[in-house]
């Protein structure tokens, strides 16, 4: 049974005065208006850090009430930074079961109203308890992966600066992105150290924002062709290799198999570049390029809007901002917008027929791959 993305809604990412429910409703209303307010019989909401003025936020019933969806069924999911993709996959599977006709999927997060140290500690909940007990944070573990990758292939640190330059350049074309000004390699290299080789601009920003899509049964301009999910060892120390994400490789293989496509048929990608080195790993893990070849794709401009395989036309997590539960759904939403011809100023040069979105949970412990295509595929 086919399922397609019928509409997309976004609440601009960045530092927002709005509360969590306000952000979620902003994106949701936009998506609902995109289908003419047709009836919704399933609401799937994702939020990792849901909080309100009185503590933990009952985001699912509050949003249902705000949108007038009390008659719908509903579920809330939490998959750390892959929450948005998890919500999308859950809704697709529910529609494919035949129990539901139309679903509203929302991913939302409010993060900027708390000190950075508090948010960093909360995000560390996606790590193994033993890593947290040892003082590990997301940036610290990402830095280990980045160090290992650069050392393995003898790549200079300036290579990851190019990832940031690309992301910020793409984000300037996306009105919903947090960052609207480009940066130079010199500015990236001069930003303050966080956990070397990572500097401030190599890391995604704490953000507020939301994304929403309406899914309907049947085929359309942005039909779900393939879904894949994969796990890896929770602790980095238990992995055979942390310069690649096994969870992405598994998810990609499953998505390609279910779509009956090969990596060579993917025309553009949205990857979860929460930290600059991850963009290189993702391209390799998805099979877009071979091991150690990610840097040359940036050096030769093959990732640009008019390149071989455009990467992150939305600006990606680094350029668009990272309200964690919204990011995975925003990536899928961007693929749908490109396929539907609704991307506007951030449309890639060649109208695509097939696109892929990849989302990362934790430090690659549970990842998702989603392939969308126009009706009839390629």
Which features characterize this protein?
globular; 13 helices; five-stranded mixed beta sheet; alpha/beta; Peroxisomal Thiolase, Chain A, domain 1; 378 residues; four-stranded mixed beta sheet; 13 strands
Q: Please write the string of helix (H) and strand (E) elements.
A: EHEEEHEHEHHHHHEEEEHEHHHHEE
The largest sheet, given as strand count, sense and whether it forms a barrel, is: 5 strands, mixed
Strand content: 15-25%
How many extended strands?
13
CATH topology call of one domain: Peroxisomal Thiolase, Chain A, domain 1
Give average pLDDT, whole number: 95
The number of distinct helices, counting runs of at least 4 residues, comes to 13
- Overall radius of gyration: 19 Å
CATH homologous superfamily classification of one domain: Thiolase/Chalcone synthase
Helix content: 25-40%
The outline comes out as: globular
Span between N and C termini?
18 Å
Low-confidence stretches: none
CATH class of one domain: Alpha Beta
